[in-house]
Amino acid sequence: MGLLIELIVPILLGLTGLLVGTLLERKHYRSIRAREEALRHIMVFNEKRPPLSFTGQHFHLVQGSVVVSSDYFKNIAASLKSFFGGRLTSYETLMDRGRREAILRMKEQAAAVGATAIFAVRLETSTLNSIGGRGGIGSAEFLAYGTAWSAQP
After folding, report:
1. pLDDT for res 137
2. Buried b vs exposed e over 51-77: b needs ≥16 C-beta within 10 Å?
3. Which of the listed CATH numbers 2.60.120.200, 1.10.340.30, 1.10.3300.10, 3.30.110.70 matches domain 2-150?
4. pLDDT score of 86
5. Which segments of the protein form a coiled coil according to its record (predicted)?
6. DSSP conformation class of 33
7. Distance CA 76, CA 9 (A)
8. Sheet harboring 117-131: ordered strands across?
9. How far is residue 3 from each of residues 6, 14, 95, 145, measured CA to CA in Å?
10. In terms of Cα–Cα distance, which of 84, 41, 86, 65 is closest to 139?
């Protein structure tokens, strides 16, 4: 009976962690989609300079950053996948959420100053720590920054 409990408890904890992680990721994606829709009016460009008609207006440096950590199950799935080769789809969702969240935070900062466009947008990503020194992603920082344009005096 003791051996059975020693097997069942870790499995139940693992399944609970997987379920909670999946639900939290879905909730975050719903939040991202709603905020992206609310901020659609702010245009984002990677061009270095705005059109000449925008000169003489008010410009602001805006940025958004986020640190996202990978959960235990994504790391296990990525480890198994990297053993056989191929796309690491479990990390792709992590990277997608991080980039989109950083851009949203930058757009929210631009909206706070009344901006309608952001130019010279750049994205940077860095791994903050790795799992067990094996190169797996533990957490990553995403930074989006650019120059917001505001027509307001």
Report:
1. 63
2. eeebeeeebbebebebebebbeebbeb
3. 3.30.110.70
4. 72
5. none
6. H
7. 19
8. 43-44, 117-131, 136-150, 58-69
9. 5, 17, 40, 54
10. 65
Question: Domain locations in the chain?
Answer: 2-150
Q: Is the pTM of this model over 0.90?
A: no
Question: 13-46 burial string, b = 16+ CB within 10 Å, else e?
Answer: eeeeeeeeeeeeeeeeeeebeebeeebeebebbe
Across the chain, which has 153 residues, the per-10-residue mean pLDDT values are 76 78 88 94 86 74 90 69 72 88 97 92 84 64 93 60
Q: Helix (H, G, I), strand (E, B), or coil: what is residue 13? A: helix
Per-residue confidence (pLDDT) for residue 37, from 0 to 100: 95
3-state secondary structure of 152: coil
CA angle 112, 113, 114 (to 5 degrees): 95
Say if residues 59 and 146 touch (Cβ distance below 8 Å).
no
